[in-house]
Specification:
This protein is α/β, with parallel strands linked by helices. About 40% of the residues lie in helices and about 10% in strands.
């Protein structure tokens, strides 16, 4: 189910923000994978709450009514917050920080884990890292657009730590989380198992566009620029919260996914970026 139907691929139209006929299509499903969410660091709690929290409950209702045996919910590493130590793992309590996207992802996890605890059906929460690759809007399409327009400036002098996960690696992890009995009732962080400085990650996109590097600046300067951008480009993805996210210094552990699910990222950054570049060129985005 998606906002727009695609009959050739068996996709029906619906909006998780409200109950509807779309829920009937879960009938007979063994597994429901819930990926729908509003993903942005913008403001306005209500526009995030309806799809991210209420929408998760509606998807759960559909799964329960349809007789599903497992529900896999895609959350995000933003639930760790923006300030955390290196190698942080799922034992760290989630925390609210006043950013609507973060707070609603925290709440959505609680909705899913409560459903599991109350025996509605077996549930698993997956927290993807910074997903890049073919089809990724946040960490592939938008960065390429911003670099091309010379609008991207990296905070923390480009030394913020990025935790990439190539989209195929993420799919592999989701399949393991959905199919292994060890996945039930647990939260799993899925990244490529590495943390790299943001200037190194985004340099790949700069190279694809014929640039040497992406400009960098102190975090305070970039936050001020983001506030100015908000005045002239309402709705822009460039926000102070996005700046703080890119300025993170911590890394995430994937040891739980490795030990319980047998998860091991198969595609490294260089190969992932080669595949990503081929897709961008095929789509006319480069």
């Amino acid at each position: 189910m998606d906002l727009r139907a695609d009959p050739e691929r068996g996709v029906v139209a619906g909006d998780v923000a409200g109950p509807g006929a779309w829920q009937e299509h879960a009938a007979g499903c063994d597994l429901v994978v819930h990926t729908a969410a509003r993903v942005s660091f913008g403001s306005g709690l209500e526009q995030y709450w309806r799809p991210n929290v209420a929408g998760t409950r509606h998807a759960l209702d559909a799964a329960v009514a349809g007789g599903a045996e497992r529900f896999v919910h895609l959350s995000s590493v933003v639930t760790f917050g923006f300030d955390f130590p290196g190698g942080v793992d799922e034992r760290r309590p989630v925390r609210l920080n006043g950013v609507p996207y973060v707070d609603t992802k925290v709440a959505s996890e609680q909705v899913v884990l409560q459903a599991h605890a109350e025996g509605e059906l077996a549930c698993t929460v997956v927290r993807p890292g910074d997903v890049y690759g073919p089809g990724s809007r946040p960490w592939t399409v938008i960065p390429v657009e911003e670099i091309r327009a010379r609008r991207l400036v990296l905070p923390a002098m480009g030394r913020g730590i990025f935790s990439p996960v190539y989209v195929d690696n993420l799919v592999d992890g989701i399949v393991l989380a959905a199919s292994r009995p060890e996945g039930a009732g647990r939260v799993f962080t899925l990244t490529d198992g590495v943390g790299i400085e943001s200037r190194e990650f985004f340099r790949h996109y700069a190279r694809m566009l014929g640039r040497r590097a992406v400009p960098v600046a102190p975090t305070a300067v970039v936050r001020a620029l983001a506030r100015a951008v908000a005045l002239v480009r309402p709705g822009s993805e460039v926000t102070p919260a996005a700046v703080d996210y890119i300025a993170r210094r911590g890394t995430y552990s994937i040891e739980r996914a490795r030990s319980l699910l047998g998860f091991e990222p198969a595609v490294g950054l260089d190969e992932g970026m080669e595949r990503t570049e081929a897709w961008l060129r095929a789509e006319g985005l480069l």
